Amino acid sequence: MTATQDFVHVFEPATVPGAPTLLLLHGTGADEHDLLPLGRALAPGAALLSPRGRVTENGMNRWFRRLREGVFDVDDVVRRSAELAEFVTAAARDYDLDPDRIVVSGFSNGANTGAALLLLHPSLLSGAALFAAGAPLQGREPDPVDLSGVKVFVGAGVADPITTIDQARLLADQLGARGADVETREHPGGHRLAPDVLADARAWFDRSLF
Question: What Gene Ontology terms describe what this protein does at the molecular function level (predicted)?
Answer without folding.
Answer: hydrolase activity
